[in-house]
Design brief:
alpha/beta, 8 helices, 42% helix, seven-stranded mixed β-sheet, Rossmann fold, globular, 252 residues
Length: 252
Amino acid sequence: MEDRQQLFGAVLGSIQDELDWERLGRAYCEGDGSSFFDDESRERWLDAGLLIADELAQHLPRGRGRSAYIGAALAEIPVLLVESLVLGREVVWVNLPGDEIQELERVLRLVGERRGLELPLPSNAPIESLPQHVFDHVWLVSVLTDPEHFPALHDELYERHGTVLATNRGALAAERARAEQLAGAVLALAADGALLTTSEEELAVLLPLARARDRVLRPLDRHRRGPRPVSGIVGDVVRFLRLWSRDAPPEA
């Protein structure tokens, strides 16, 4: 395990060195993005990713299992690497193409080739094309609240209507329908008893969808002491739950 952790640290360090942080900054803000990822923000990104990965590792088996990461990007890089390099698990990563994803794929391929490793790489394959009910971990964090793809739903889930932070864009009914279709496809990937990692706000969409499919989401952090972890860039509270069929025993 120590060798795996050392390898993880070395790979993550190489990725940080190779990433074009200005290019990534332009993907997150208007303008040239040259100062978006300054030293302080990069440290927050790393600390948040490591904290989430550490907690996630407590809920996943080592050396076996499959995870599906839907919409993962820069914030998830430390988590993806812990799953694949430290825990030795299979990782499937799906996201829409774009400048950020192209940069991440470029650097992951480069570092992987240098070290003779098969690092997780993003794919734009349709979620519906993935095998259903086989993943023991599904990740969907800060996707349904994305202000570019779901601006009106973003305003609703963050309760930003009438505030200066509201996008004031989009059509809520149409966006909610798209979000429910996406979330339903994500839930269909999960095996019975699978871990679901998501954000606090997205539970408002996921919980009723699970119930409609005769499945229940049981939080693993219900009695947590202290603050819950937050995502590295957006700052959303991250939640860990188990997805069971409705007839699963209460102690499951």
